Amino acid sequence: MVSLAPASPPETSADVPRSECRKGPSAALQSSVLALNRNFMAVQVISAKRAFCLLFKGQAEVVNVEGTQYCSYDFEGWLELSQMKLSMGDRYDHEDWIQAVNFQIQVPRVIRLTCYDQLPKASVKFNRRNIFLRDGHRCQYCGKRYSSPRLSLDHVLPKSRGGGETWENIVCACLKCNVAKGGRTPAEAGMKLLNKPTKPKRSPLLNRQLSLRKYECWQHFIPQSVE
Ligand SMILES: [Zn+2]
After folding, report:
1. Could you tell me which of 155, 142, 206 has the C-alpha nearest to residue 182?
2. Domain total for the chain?
3. What integer pLDDT is reported at residue 126 of this predicted model?
4. Of 40, 77, 191, 226, whose CB has the highest number of CB atoms within 10 Å?
5. Count of C-beta atoms within a 10 Å radius of residue 175
6. How far is ligand 1, taken at its centre, from the CA of residue 176, in Å?
7. What is the mean pLDDT of residues 194-213?
8. In the prediction, which pLDDT does 32 show?
């Protein structure tokens, strides 16, 4: 349901606090934030830096899962809550915090775009990165995992035989297996696919993030039935 395509929510040119700019981008600012539309539907994953920009401009509010409730905070309210948590020593390893000159603030995991009511994009972008992610960076013939530069895309039914550029016909393959297979079908080459390639129902990157403890709270806003 969620698209990772850039630029769906309103763009902003707001600056992050000067103290953060001076520090340069930290790992915490690069962490991901789930952006909901006005109606609490997940529309996009954005960086924490962008989320703070939107919060500063008053275009978004933090949605914090507290027990069985969602609580909303504007920037000031979120800062106050962060200070309170700090004073109580209420910080956890799976949280990200930003250290500015005069204050520390927790990176929210979910924000709501208060003026944005478009619906999430339904389909997952068909591209190299998402195919690698769908296949877990694993060659679908030998089963070994490789980094992106050492992987290629293989047409299961070769292009020369009418095989299309589709989720169902393109798989991740290491260079060795791709060359060994050549312009043949897996059966002709005596090779077997690990998995039948299918179109993912939601972003493979989002799937990976959902499995991490730090982004667990996103599950409240993303349909569970989708794989
Ligand atoms: Zn291989």
Report:
1. 155
2. 2
3. 94
4. 191
5. 13
6. 6
7. 89
8. 94
Taking Cα atoms as reference points, which of 177, 133, 137 lies closest to residue 155?
177
Residue 174 Cα to ligand 1 midpoint, Å, equals: 4
Cα(177) to centroid(ligand 1), Å: 4
Q: Give pTM, 2 decimals.
A: 0.70
77 C-alpha to ligand 1 centroid (Å):
52
Residues 94 and 41 in one domain: yes
The answer to the question of residue 226 being in a domain is no
Verify that 184 and 92 share a domain, yes or no: no
3-state secondary structure 119-144: CCCCCCCCCHHHHHHHCCCECCCCCC
Does residue 31 surpass a pLDDT of 50? yes
| C-alpha torsion 148→151→152→157, nearest 10 | -130
Q: Between 75-87 and 48-56, two packed helices, what is the crossing angle to 10 degrees? A: 120
One domain, residues 102 and 36: yes
**170 CA from centroid of ligand 1 (Å):** 14
According to the model, what pLDDT value does residue 225 have? 52
Q: Which domain holds residue 41?
A: 18-122+202-220
pLDDT at 157 over 90: yes
User: Same domain for 172 and 85?
Assistant: no
